[in-house]
Design a protein that fits this description.
With 219 residues, the protein is mainly α. The protein has helices at residues 6-14, 20-35, 39-54, 58-75, 80-84, 90-93, 116-121, 125-134, 137-144, 180-183. The protein is 44% helix and 0% strand.
Length: 219
């Protein structure tokens, strides 16, 4: 038991202590001096353990994870840790302005004329105004005849697609102007997402595998 990490040893002993005040007194006056650590270090270890347990499956670890969380909250009463409720992941997940330890650059990209993304973009005011300004008489007639239709289900196509839609060849030189409300100042078409696409030869299309066949790993 003495070889266990301090946070695990403290958890075992803390489960038999009643009351938050008695718990913190035992942590500060007895447990930490015996282990040669500080209360701040013990709370940090407890937070790391809680985050690790949070990555485990709910069954059977949910109850233990919540107990660890409740214990840390009781340990942190009256400390800066309690006031901020800080998490080791906060700088990565909640840093909107300033320096992020692991910045992730998103960007917007082109979409085909009849893509569902362009259809959904029409909810933005800037997209509606631009469409009205660019609409011609032929476009109005096309709409009246039911020409604006979308193939939402992609019947007959591959059920496995790349991460971003491919642009038709005739529109390769054309740039889609993303609504300002969705772009929020992001760059356009940086191109790195294409590096994650599968090779066309690896994509399995509907009809390539007979119905009812069991797909083995080597396939």
């Amino acid at each position: 038991f003495a070889d266990f990490p301090p946070e695990i040893a403290f958890f075992e002993q803390a489960m038999s202590i009643k009351g938050g005040t008695a718990l913190r007194e035992y942590m500060i006056n007895d447990f930490c001096p015996q282990r040669g650590i500080t209360p701040e270090g013990l709370r940090e270890g407890m937070r790391r353990w809680y985050q690790q347990m949070g990555n485990m499956q709910i069954d059977p670890y949910a109850d233990l994870t919540m107990k660890i969380h409740e214990l840390h909250r009781a340990m942190a009463i009256g400390t800066p840790d309690c006031e901020s409720q800080r998490s080791p992941y906060d700088p990565y997940l909640h840093t909107i302005e300033g320096e992020n330890p692991a910045p992730f650059q998103t960007y917007t990209f082109n979409h085909a004329k009849l893509s569902i993304v362009r259809f959904l973009d029409m909810k933005y005011v800037s997209a509606q105004e631009r469409a009205e300004a660019q609409m011609t008489k032929a476009d109005l007639e096309d709409q009246d005849e039911g020409g604006m239709q979308f193939d939402l289900f992609g019947m007959g196509e591959s059920n496995e697609r790349n991460l971003r839609p491919e642009q038709p060849a005739e529109e390769e030189e054309w740039v889609y102007e993303v609504p300002e409300e969705r772009a929020v100042g992001r760059p356009h078409e940086l191109g790195w997402l294409n590096m994650l696409d599968k090779d066309p030869s690896e994509i399995v299309r509907m009809g390539d595998i007979p119905s009812g066949r069991i797909i083995m790993e080597e396939d």
